[in-house]
Amino acid sequence: MSNQYDVIVIGAGIGGLSTGLHLLDKGYKTLILEAHTLPGGLCTSFERKGYTIDTSIHWLVGCIEGGVVWHTLNRFNLLPEVKLRRLEQLATIRTPEHEVTIGDDVGEYERFLCRLFPSDERELVRFFKRAKSLPRMIEPSPEDRKRHPFKSLGSLFSYWPLIMLAFQFGKLSYDSYLKRFKEKPRIKPYLSVFTDDSSVLINFYLFSWLHQQDLYTPQVNSLGFSRAFESRFKAMGGEIRYNARVSKILVNDGKVKGVSLANGEEIYGKAVVSNADGYQTLFQLLGKEFVPPSLVHLYETAPLFGSMLMVSLGVNQVLTEKDMPARMLSEWVTPETTGVKLTDLEKAPVTYKLESLYNQAVAPPGKSLLLFEAMADFNEWKTLRPDSTRYKEAKQLAGEIALRRTETCFPQLKGKLEVIDVATPVTFERYTCNREGSIQGWRPTPEMIRHMNLPWKPTYLPNLFMVGQWVSVGGGIPPSVMGGEKVAGLVARYLK
Ligand SMILES: Cc1cc2nc3c(=O)[nH]c(=O)nc-3n(C[C@H](O)[C@H](O)[C@H](O)COP(=O)(O)OP(=O)(O)OC[C@H]3O[C@@H](n4cnc5c(N)ncnc54)[C@H](O)[C@@H]3O)c2cc1C
Q1: Which of 271, 318, 386, 390 is deepest in the core (most CB within 10 A)?
Q2: pLDDT digits (tens, 9 = 90+) for 227-269
């Protein structure tokens, strides 16, 4: 086994795998080091009593032809592996007064809301007009850009409506935007699936993706999605090592020279790309002295996306679109969206996801898999964790509440829920090393949205790069996939 590479990538999350593929494509000898035994990071799945429980992809945007995710999937021939299916519905919203499914006919949804909230018709029409004006997430391929520079210019012009909206609403959170509506508290659940302090631009984008028919889901589970990247990486000659936790980024003479692993082994590279948690990369694997003060300040103060309580429920019955037309149902009892404590779980907004709807393979024959998810308070679970009895009791309580709420929401499931698995924010932190178990990195507040992409080359060192959810505000699979292409280009420029 060699200990000398052109590029070492820390982490086999989607960001690391995508970077690895693009680096191999450019001819660089690349090694990926992954702390876990599996690829995927947050984009993974695990087995419980015959069920395959997914931790990630529900929707994927940027998958239409020419889309930012499509480019990588197409270039590495991954489209047949991941079997994308377009989603015709975003979600079902259930409030104490109504239940509605948001389909890709955004106009129909707009009309529904105008009927429900006639006094806010004017503002609703404006909201959807803004959403529909946003450009598609399409870009010319790098080859196209070289061949036809004017295409890039054209795509820049297509971003004009976004620039205008950013100028007008860039400083507004969803909560402040809602002040324009007379029926603010009632309207709130219908126009967002993010936290109240998220930028309103994200909510415009949500409906724009739907309108542009750019919401997809892979018909393989999340681990299958990651495995597709991993297999192609190996087939192209890339090396990947599991159980290989990086404990230090080695620096010599103002440059990164490689990494050392937890077992003391040293591996050398001309450049290092970290896909691992940003805080860990900059302050634990490296040191504060290499990081510009402005970035240190951001890491000390900026809000995280937050983590999740995820209860997986094995159902002894086949559930279909009649039970859950959109595969995802958001249930609003009270409107509080951030950091839900266990004591609030009975009433917190929660999301149900019928995982087996488009991929029956995740449940044994004749059964279904339903997830119950709520944004959760990391500190509460972190405090409980050292006392294993209290932690287990809290997990059990969370499972019981999830069960009760699920049976109330879907009375047809009474007595049919047979497997319960509870994952807490601490579980997400433990398995993926993401700070506070954050499931998407930074929270896309108006202040953070300004940054959009944090520096890909975040330190004073010229050959250390970062990729993934900690450099792309708001996180998710698309920025990690497209970040791979971007960062491989920067590495290539450095190595040349
Ligand atoms: C429940 C849930 C639902 C989601 N739903 C969606 C969705 O519907 N659509 C969507 O687009 N996104 C979704 N996401 C978010 C998405 O999964 C993540 O934003 C994305 O997978 C992040 O990928 P990444 O490569 O940036 O980072 P990660 O997945 O965090 O990968 C980082 C990798 O680095 C490894 N690592 C860390 N430290 C070290 C070290 N010291 N040495 C070696 N390896 C290390 C980790 O083990 C991990 O494998 C969801 C996430 C969750 C949890």
Answers
A1: 271
A2: 999 999 999 999 999 999 999 999 999 999 999 999 999 999 9
Q: Whose CA is nearest to atom 37 of ligand 1?
A: 276
Ligand 1, atom nearest to 428 Cα = 53
Pocket test for ligand 1, best of 9, 45, 440, 482 (most atoms within 8 A of CB): 440
Q: Which long-range contacts (CB under 8 A, 24 or more apart) does 251-259 make?
A: 251/286, 251/290, 251/461, 254/460, 254/461, 254/462, 255/461, 255/462, 255/463, 256/461, 256/463, 256/464, 258/8, 259/8, 259/10, 259/33, 259/285
Among protein residues, the one whose CA lies closest to atom 52 of ligand 1: 56
pLDDT-based confidence at 420, cuts 50/70/90?
Answer: very high
Q: Residue of the nearest CA to atom 3 in ligand 1?
A: 56
Q: How many A from CA of 13 to the centre of ligand 1?
A: 5
Q: Which CATH superfamily is domain 4-82+218-303+444-495 in?
A: FAD/NAD(P)-binding domain (3.50.50.60)
The full set of domain ranges for the chain reads: 4-82+218-303+444-495, 105-212, 307-432
* pLDDT tens readout for residues 291-312: 999 999 999 999 999 999 999 9
Single pTM value for the model:
0.94
